[in-house]
Amino acid sequence: MSKDLRSFLAQVKEADAKGLLQETGYVEVGRRINPHLEIALLREKLAHEGRFPVIFCPEVEGSTMPIVLNLDVSRELHGLSLGLDPSRWTDRDLQREYKKRLDERKPTKRVPASRAPVKEVIIKGADVDLARLPIPQSAVPQAGKYITPGCMICRDPETGTLNVGVYRHQVKGKNLLGAMINPLHDAAPIAWRYAQMGKPMEVAIVLGHHPAVGTAALARGSLGDFSELDVAGGILGEPLEVVQGETVELDVPAAAEIIIEGVIDDPRPSSTDGPFPEWTHYGRGNKPAYLIRVTAITMRHDAIYHDLVTTDRGRGGWGGYNTIRTFNAVKLAVPTVRQIRLWLGITWVQITKRVEGEGKLAAFAAMTAEEHNQIIVVVDDDIDLWSERDLGLALSRRLVGDRGIDIISRITSDHLNPTSYNENRDPGIELGPMGSRVLIDATRPLNLQWHTRITPENRFESLWDTMTLDDFKLSRPARQAREAVAAGNRGGRR
Fold first, then answer.
1. Is 70 exceeded by the pLDDT of residue 481?
2. DSSP class per residue in 33-50
3. Rounded distance, CA 245 to CA 72, Å?
4. What are the two backbone dihedrals, phi and then psi, of residue 478, each rounded to the nearest 5 degrees?
5. 316 pLDDT band (50/70/90 cuts)?
6. Maximum Cα–Cα distance for the chain, whole Å?
7. What is the C-alpha separation between 143 and 273, in angstroms, rounded?
8. Does an H or E element contain 388, and which?
9. What whole-number distance in Å separates Cα of residue 307 and Cα of residue 71?
């Protein structure tokens, strides 16, 4: 049996029963839940207590379809989806494994409709009604209902390669959806090409599958020479099974819970999106959006609706393919790049500097790789990217402020960031696709004498490695005296 959402949920339950999940787990809601605000409220209440379990809602008001969410909010769940041993559920191991799986892409496997669970129910034509789905609303300042975790498939008209990306979709009518596409993400130039050709753009939105499909959608490979559907196969460790769409000439995952097929008749931003509560803690409306005319909905007869509550409250912010994409871009410019870490909203780049200027070169390369890289700090290879002390040392003891900081303004950037702007240059007036990036070179001078960093190894020389705490025969006399008194009291009571 191929891997899908249900096999992953079974994995989560088994791991939780064995006590392997410390950050997350699996919980079920014991009453009928309202998709208007209550699902997001539950998620935030749990997050506020530092709990990030997979949440299953068996009974949903106004629907016979259950809802599941929180499938990718922790490193544990990422590690579980990769089949890693729990001891390897760390930032470093996940980055290595995802990079490996990206290079182990597997072509999709076409199966007949008779073997595709997502074809058990087919709704087309006048019968299409998005109200059949329990699409939640997750905040009061939100423009109605949104499909948030949908993986949208489209075809590059120049190469024929299938692209997959995660975009949010505002419900605009019984058979109309918006599509808010970041101008720097793959579907935007693909839509532009269709518009230049004067042709409509077919799409298919995948709802509910193994987390590998959503993770693969971050790879952004279809503008190159591969499809994210093949990346999903690499992550799964087996070819992703696909089936022909009902009303579109696109392959879709056969084991999905729900597929929404449609057409962007005018592949230019012809609608608006929002307001919507962004993961940036802000939300404004009137963002450019495309309009999808839904032509079919196919699903399992007992489909599970997958929801995603947009928030930065979670333990999964290690970066995934964003980190790998940044690493690969930097490596082309600075072959001696060692590691990348996304932390505190900052992109940290560790390099072994060979010539002067490579620190700044690495920062520029990282800036081009990912629009979310707003602040980039480059450090030497003796700085541990996972040590707050080391990162603080690099910024406070190696950065020369008037030489190491560059601000690049009016550059295409993250349009969801509340500091983004357009030609007005005032984020308070109107957001836009431009922003300002901060590039910081916190590396040491290469050819000038620099201060010696004091470490345990050079401070104590060989003693650091040869002596242990046991050699000092430490004792805790106060505790031992207290324990002796307590033991005597117990003996006297006998």
1. yes
2. B-TBTHHHHHHHHHHHTT
3. 27
4. -65, -45
5. very low
6. 96
7. 8
8. helix 388-393
9. 9
Is pTM beyond 0.85? Reply is no
Task: Write the CA distances from 353 to 280, 329, 384, integer angstroms.
Answer: 34, 16, 15
Structure tokens of 489?
């009291």
Q: Could you give the C-alpha distances from 126 to 121, 265, 375, 432, in angstroms and in order? A: 15, 18, 49, 37
Could you report the per-residue pLDDT of 326-360, keeping only the tens digit for each? 898 999 999 999 999 988 789 999 999 999 999 99
Q: Which helix (H) or strand (E) holds 402?
A: helix 401-404
Burial class, 350, CB count within 10 angstroms (exposed 0-12 / middle 13-18 / buried 19+)? buried
For 306, the token pair is 């997958």
3-class SS of residue 52? coil
Q: Which residues on neighbouring strands pair with residue 438, listed in sequence order?
A: 375, 407
Residue pair 114/160 in contact by the 8 Å Cβ criterion:
no
Distance CA 288, CA 272 (A): 5
Tokens of 407: 């601000």
Q: How far apart are the first and last CA of the chain?
A: 65
| Closest by CA position to 158, among listed 181, 184, 107, 192 | 192
Question: Which helix (DSSP H) or strand (DSSP E) does residue 325 occupy?
Answer: helix 321-333
**Residue 242: helix, strand or coil by DSSP?**
strand
What is the distance between the alpha carbons of residues 149 and 169, in angstroms, rounded to a whole number? 9
Judged by average pLDDT, the poorest of 264-278, 304-318, 459-473 is 304-318
Tokens at 37, concatenated: 């605000």
Handedness of CA 164, 243, 65, 55 (dihedral sign): negative
Neighbour tally for 463: CB within 10 Å:
11
